[in-house]
Design goal:
Layout (H helix, E strand, L loop, with lengths): L17 E2 L2 E2 L27 E5 L2 E4 L11 H16 L1 H8 L3 H14 L7 H16 L17 H11 L5 H6 L32 H9 L16 E6 L2 E6 L7 H16 L4 H16 L2 H13 L5 E9 L10 E9 L1 H12 L1 H6 L15 E13 L8 E4 L3 H6 L2 E6 H9 L4 H6 L3 H26 L12 H4 L4 H17 L3 H4 L6 H17 L15 H16 L6 E6 L2 E6 L2 H21 L2 H11 L5 H11 L7 E4 L3 E6 L5 E7 L4 H11 L8
Parallel strand pairs: 4-14, 9-11
Antiparallel strand pairs: 1-2, 3-4, 5-6, 7-8, 8-9, 10-11, 12-13, 15-16
Length: 688
């Protein structure tokens, strides 16, 4: 489960890091607009320029790869092959997100590259912004809100551009840019047919919630104690009234791109660091060839056990957040290099995972008696693709299968260089605007950077590894359905929150002042969950994204249940609202109570309780407060969402054609990298 940190979570898409929700921001010049080649090497003696672009609600940054020169040539080759494999599947994510995405992207890019007319008009600027937003979201729906992106230009203007550039786009794909159809990529609203009303391309026309639930209820795993991840790597369609799966595999759905992935994975296997890593890569290749879900589990067991070496990776159909019912995995790839110094410092958490489990407030029946195989590393990203790019997680915890996590363990990583890049362009403006007093601001400045790292580690290493299902209870996606994702992320958040205000952190040598670090953590979480994250919503909207929901239901529940003791007070000063924590000890106790209940809901598969918790506290927004937050936020120019371009790895060869080194270069612009990717990794037809 690719899980995210406490503030900006997107479990395997752990989403993108935000320092106190001040997410991290201009535009490319005309000369860059037709560039498709990135060849600018960053001089080590020059200050690194993290900022690439800013548009709409997004800013795009660069990141470096610390430790690259310390890798051997063989290790650099391994990273290169793995990143090429990841990028080769890029278009899979686009098609998974929406059936018209590839057609629309190719048409918009044709206009962008070939238009010779006036590029200074407001209409052209609106077109350019729309294209950048589509690139950033891997499609025409917002990467976070799931709402369809609104073009700031008319259909007549787009027709004019297409005529000028001799660009073609099918009528139905053209119309959907401007009409009300397919308005939500993922629709998690209560009381609707979530599958039928979600535009995500995991299900064919006419497929309903009932169809999906009944189809998979009829499937049985060979070993009920080790259930297969049915639906993870397929599209479910209805033909002549009969449901069938179109499996993602070589020779199947997305086969052309998967064959390219296999080509690069074969090269990666040839330079693997050790036998365990090579065996895991071999199983991943077998899975891509066959689509067999037992092979997927075999691969995950082997990958989880393969912990030696300087290089690791994530590649395949993994996170299920884009499926309204939580079955189907989105394609994603992250290639990473170990950060030895930071990993050793954080290893202490995984070494003490059993202590945290034993001392948690869970019911005894819900505690794991033997927490196994939890490894935690800080890594530096070398390349990302699919659901992890341009908007990236900052923490990852895999695999997702509960039985593998229980019997074998899991891998947790924190993406150190991504977090570092975001910190370089951060601002404390929103902190000062929404903080209750100077003490809160000072706690943040002195302790929050460390607190945030620990929150991420506790969420990933302890949170997702904690707890167990009752015997006979089905997988969470089956029992909790559309609430499964937000309950799991909230559960991991609550584990982290419970231990963030604990003397154990100081005892383990992780902090010098556990109370100050814990207070900084609690202050930011409550302010974010009750106010600051609302800047991401349009006035009148409900909270729909799973991670935003879990931050709100945790914070709102704690505020509500603590009212008798005024644990969190709502303060109005000069017409502005603030939330002030008056008793951190009691707040920790409340987090413990909610953690116990959340784990009970998961362990027992209590759908009614999950619905009551999420719908009661996590969905509806105080509209008066929301309007106030939006008004207070207008003074800040930094965009609330952050994404990244990838470094470009350039092999260099000798006179014999043998690879002698791989140079790390940086793309000159967001536009140039997106156009280059569309040209280089274009392996799928427009309609699949």
């Amino acid at each position: 489960m690719l899980a995210t940190p406490l503030k900006n979570i997107k479990r395997m898409k752990v989403l993108v890091f935000s320092l106190g929700l001040v997410l991290l921001f201009t535009t490319s010049c005309l000369e860059d607009k037709s560039e498709t080649k990135q060849d600018t090497e960053t001089a080590s003696t020059q200050p690194f320029d993290y900022k690439v672009d800013q548009f709409a609600d997004v800013k795009v940054l660069r990141y470096q790869i610390p430790g690259w020169e310390q890798l051997t040539l063989k290790e650099q080759q391994l990273v290169y092959y793995l990143t090429q494999a990841g990028l080769s599947g890029r278009d899979i994510m686009w098609d998974q997100n929406y059936r018209h995405n590839l057609s629309i992207r190719k048409a918009l890019e044709s206009v962008y590259v070939n238009f010779k007319g006036d590029r200074t008009t407001e209409d052209w600027e609106a077109f350019e912004t729309y294209l950048k937003r589509v690139w950033f979201s891997n499609g025409i729906h917002h990467h976070y809100s799931n709402d369809k992106l609104e073009p700031g230009f008319s259909s007549d203007y787009l027709k004019h551009l297409m005529d000028e550039t001799q660009t073609e786009l099918r009528d139905d794909a053209f119309a959907v840019i401007f009409n009300e159809a397919d308005a939500k990529k993922v629709n998690q609203a209560k009381g609707i047919d979530n599958v039928a009303l979600s535009a995500v391309n995991f299900y064919g026309p006419g497929v309903t919630n009932t169809d999906v639930i009944e189809f998979y209820a009829a499937k049985e795993s060979p070993d009920p104690k080790r259930p297969l991840s049915f639906g993870l790597n397929s599209q479910l369609v209805k033909e002549n009234g009969v449901l069938r799966e179109r499996v993602y595999k070589s020779g199947g759905l997305y086969g052309a791109a998967i064959d390219e992935i296999l080509k690069w994975l074969e090269l990666a296997k040839g330079v693997a660091e050790n036998e365990a890593q090579a065996n895991a890569l071999g199983l991943l290749m077998d899975y891509y060839r066959t689509g067999d879900l037992q092979t997927w589990d075999d691969y995950n067991v082997a990958w989880t056990k393969a912990t030696d070496g300087n290089v690791d990776y994530i590649n395949s159909f993994i996170e299920v957040y884009n499926d309204p019912l939580g079955y189907r995995g989105s394609y994603e790839s992250i290639v990473q290099i170990n950060d030895f110094d930071m990993s050793q410092k954080m290893k202490v958490l995984s070494d003490h995972a059993q202590w945290f489990e034993d001392h948690s407030p869970l019911m005894d029946a819900h505690k794991k008696k033997n927490v196994v195989g939890v490894t935690y590393k800080v890594v530096n990203v070398a390349g990302e693709a699919g659901d992890a790019s341009p908007s990236t997680p900052i923490g990852v915890n895999l695999p997702n299968a509960n039985w593998i996590r229980k019997e074998v363990g899991s891998k947790s990583v924190s993406l150190g260089n991504i977090i570092h890049a975001s910190n370089q362009v951060g601002s404390t403006g929103r902190l000062e605007e929404f903080a209750h007093d100077d003490e809160e601001i000072e706690l943040y400045r002195q302790h929050y950077e460390l607190a945030d790292k620990l929150e991420t580690a506790l969420h990933e290493v302890i949170g997702h590894a904690s707890g167990q299902l009752n015997p006979g209870v089905g997988e969470t996606k089956e029992t909790l359905k559309n609430y499964a994702s937000t309950l799991e992320e909230g559960r991991a958040d609550l584990v982290a929150l419970y231990y963030m205000y604990s003397p154990k952190l100081e005892e383990l040598g992780l902090v010098d002042d556990w109370q100050a670090v814990g207070k900084a953590s609690y202050n930011e979480y409550i302010a974010n969950g009750l106010m600051k994250q609302l800047i991401r919503l349009k006035l009148g909207d409900d909270v729909e994204e799973a991670h935003m929901r879990n931050r709100q239901w945790i914070s709102a529940w704690a505020f509500d249940k603590g009212q008798a003791d005024n644990v969190i007070e709502k303060v109005t000063r000069d017409g502005k609202t603030y939330f002030n924590i008056t008793n951190y000890d009691k707040l920790r106790d409340l987090f413990g109570v909610l953690l116990r209940e959340t784990q009970r809901i998961k362990s027992e598969g209590d759908y009614a309780a999950a619905e009551a918790l999420v719908e009661g506290y996590g969905v509806k927004v105080d509209q008066e407060l929301h309007a106030e937050v939006l008004d207070r936020n207008r003074q800040f120019k930094s965009a609330p969402y952050t994404g990244y371009v990838n470094p470009v790895l350039v092999p260099e060869t000798d006179a014999n054609g043998d690879m002698v080194r791989i140079k790390v270069t940086q793309p000159e612009s967001f536009v140039s990298q997106m156009l280059d990717y569309s040209k280089t990794y274009n392996f799928l037809p427009e309609v699949n």
